[in-house]
Design brief:
The complex is a heterodimer of chains A (356) and B (280).
Chain A (H helix, E strand, L loop, with lengths): L14 H39 L9 H5 L2 E9 L2 E6 H17 L8 E11 L2 H32 L4 H15 L2 H15 L6 H26 L2 H9 L4 H30 L2 H4 L17 H4 L7 H11 L4 H35 L3
Antiparallel strand pairs in A: 1-2, 1-3
Chain B lengths: L20 H4 L6 E12 L2 E12 L3 E5 L6 H8 L9 E10 L2 E2 L7 H7 E4 L10 H10 L6 H14 L3 H4 L12 H14 L4 E5 L7 H14 L4 E5 L3 H7 L2 E6 L2 E7 H6 L4 H7 L5
Parallel strand pairs in B: 3-8, 3-9, 6-7, 7-8
Antiparallel strand pairs in B: 1-2, 1-4, 4-5, 9-10
Helix pairs in contact in B: 4-5, 4-7, 5-7, 7-8
The chains are: A mainly alpha (356), B alpha/beta (280).
Amino acid sequence: MANTATNPFAVKPSLARTWEKANFWIFRLAAYFILACGLAIIGNIAIKGSRTVFQSTAPFINTTFLTQAPETLYVFEYNGVKRHLGNGEFRVFQEQEIAKAKAAGQPPPQFKNLETFVYSAGGIFPCIVGTLLLVVGSMTIALTLGVSSAIYLSEYAKPGRIVRLIRLAILNLAGVPSIVFGLFGYGMFVVFFGWNVSILAGWFTLAFMVLPVVITASEEALRAVPKGFREGSLALGATKWQTIRKSVLPYALPGILTSSILGIARVAGETAPIMFTAAYVMLDKLPWQAGGFNDFFFQGVMALPYHIYVVSSKIPQNEYTERVQYGTAFVFLLLVAGIAAASILLRNRLRRLYKW
Amino acid sequence: MENPASAPSVAAPRPFEIPTSSVLKAPTPRTLIDVTHLDFNYGPKQALFDINLKLDEKRVTAFIGPSGCGKSTLLRCFNRMNDLIDGTRIARGSIQINGIDIYRPDVDPIELRKRVGMVFQKSNPFPKSIYENITYGLRIQGINTKSRLDEVVEKSLRGAALWDEVKDRLHESGLGLSGGQQQRLCIARAIAVEPQIILMDEPCSALDPIATAKVEELIHALKREYTIIIVTHSMQQAARVSDKTAFFYIGKLIEYADTRTIFMNPSNPQTEAYVSGRFG
């Protein structure tokens, strides 16, 4: 069109165009709003938590917080200076000052305005250990059971009543609330099997909770592998399992790992299933310190999400508990991000290795 | 069919050449595959009706016919690949290979497929290296000695006329080859397990003319050692490549004879109509 004045394709303002623009902005704002919420939540936790986790002096990370068990915080005034000391340190300090005063022939020292705050000193090391153990164990169980079921459902099973029943069961499992899983775990593993509150009970409860996600995603990943690989392999005289093992499963692994990343975040963060089955409010010993190899599986653990719950609602709130809460939440986010990053690295490696 | 009245209805002269080599084959061929009164069903729907066919050893037989006539179905019956689809069954009749009914309960389809290989329409090399593609069939049988595997790789690639092109890149991915090379790789993979019969389901339909010519040349060379059954949509290809041809139409075998006869002198009017291009 040489002459723009007579352009028949020119933009004509109309109601439809206005609605188009309006809706575009509505959708865009909705998406950005979600982004903003996500940033707000994570940012809030990161900012408040990093005050606990990071410190301004070397080594810049509050190693006490990450490597020690929780202790009671003693806040007191001594010689006009307000001090904060953990349980162990306070006793040492107390003995030192009493000994000094005795040696100098003075009366025993007075600790003014002594206040104690539970779980506000020390660190959360046992919780980190507990969460890691729970995640690793339950994901192993969930992946083993889930991938096996997915292989059966997508490669071996003939369509029929039983397969429909299995799929219905998986869907139902996906809809069960996590607290109900906790009760189920308590009834089945803790009481009926007699495992008591233990890592083993926690593993199985969490594994069942995350199973539907793993099965669904694994089935999708298996179905995405082209049929030609299976036909080519079978036509050479391979058994079905040989075909799956060599020509299908390796190429479905990246998809299966993606589902496991989502599973890991869920397993690490759920409090309700582990409340009755694996988690204790406070434990002195780490699981491997309790006895022999067999005893390891029947120990309870402390866990990060349960610790946040305990510190936030079971004890009176103050500035010290807030510090611990946000610190724990931040460490938890970092932990899950770390495990997810490891999973992503593994998945990318597998993608390069089994490129198709 | 020598009726002069029908001659003008054949519009143009047939542009393909009939190989005469099939006439010069001296010994009488032995029947390897014997199909008797075969009825085949996909669920409730019948796909093959009373097929009777004897296929010769160390010959190339072509199955021709319009789409949906059942030629691929019959081909896939020979190595029991139809078992992978739910609801398929042989309603009547039998297929005997070397005198043994392959649908007998004591016949293992896995063993059968080691002796009856298949090349598919869309070439499906595994996304592994060329070397691993060829040795796949041997590894699943437990043969793992490197010297033997190397030997088989070279023999199969030479047999598939691919050795010179890929001998320097055996450990590169099979997917990096061109379409024609991939199909020849699939043929090499099939002959690595030393089958007796090779089934080819429209192997050249996805290939350009030059690649097609190479594969057809390969089939000529292979028929000295293997029995080949090829399903093809192209009548010209059937005429170039095969010794005997079977014409199918809507699940029935219409005519089966020497290729020369089918194309120059068919006895059935439907065959005549198909090969002269009046439908298809």
